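pipeline: protein-struct stage 2 | run 1193 | Aspartate aminotransferase family protein
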Amino acid sequence: MSHTATRNGLSDANLQRMAERERAHFVANNPRSQALAAQAAPHWLFGVPLHWMNDWSTPFALHVAHAHGALVTDVDGHTRVDFCLGDTGAMFGHAPAPVVHAVQTQMAKGCTTMLATADAAWVGAELARRFGLPMWQSAMTASDANRFLLRWVRAATGRKKLLVFNGCYHGTVDDVFVDLVGGKPQQRDSLLGQVQDLTQYTVVVEFNDLAALEAALAAGDIACVLAEPVMTNIGMVLPEPGYWEAAQALIRQHGAMLILDETHTLSSGPGGYAATHGLKPDALVFGKPIGGGVPCAVYGFSAELAQRAMQAKRDAPPGHSGIGTTLTANMLAMAAMRATLGEVATDTAFAHMLQLAGAMAEGLRASIARHSLPWCVTQVGARCEFQFAAQPPRNGTQAEHMLDSELEQLIHLALLNRGVMITPFHNMLLASPATTMADVHSLLSAFNDVLAKLTAP
């Protein structure tokens, strides 16, 4: 690297020196994790049970001993404040007591029978009350929930095409791995093993571009728009004022359905982003956190979509619908969801989360300004992110141009070395009901120290 080169307001030479120091510090202080990583390497693809575990910034996989509340302790005895929270799966903290009790109790009664329990009736009523849609189904993951909803909507509307926003992410749903490249849809090169031409049935436009949305819908062949109400996986992109009100009108005008994937934006409040901001989707998806860390997901239908979906099922020939899996709505998941919705994801919990996230965002901004860096901070509910540009992005293309994987990895590793965990994918942070103001101060102190090292002469 050139010693005079800069990136995002920082010296390349200084970044390289700091990266070497931080890696050496991590290796020296985590011998047990290093030994376990070596033991696992011969038996797991890429050395870990899920290859995403290698996406962290560490020289080898960090191994966890236990996690509770907003703290994670590794096998070398280091306890870190966790603002990643399982990248939202533990949005309400690790091992919340009501969920632990419910799961332990249910384990003694059985985990899975392919039959409903009394918890199902309670959970269904609470989902309808909280999120405003009358009919629901369960899934094991948000990926499955999105995939299943696409099938229901296509069956209900008789249309085949899906519209998504450039840079979107909706789990492992292959249909959405299409981006705009030079203004034209192109299947992502990173998608492994897909032999179908996804661009045949997937239409892509930029977020916040009403004219492009209207033009795409005008053909009258779009079954649904699948979207996060705030883009989060390419880097956070907020809707511009009035965007969703106008977008909803266009979608309805052209006979399409709106599916909002709220896997991340549940952080907006007890009813998620749609309820908090008055949106009226035809369907909703809630994944990772809905069971307090136990794998499960739910998806909801408006009355009209539910009626049309059920009619399509009744009119179809007998046989497998392609929707559902054996473990879906298992007894353990239902018990966890009831405990989470009833006792953990409360109005009081969200008020606490939102307060801390506001303090976190303001503290990050202050530190960035203190070190004269051309970066910004974006927030949605209990979630915020710092991004490497002076102004927040308005679409996926702009958000992608802000990404700097080397710089992100260095910051993440430096924070880990200072006792703080943030999401390994870009720079998102999340506050939980278990997070304290002292935890936020620990984050801000570590972040300020990292920026001081990054900007040192």
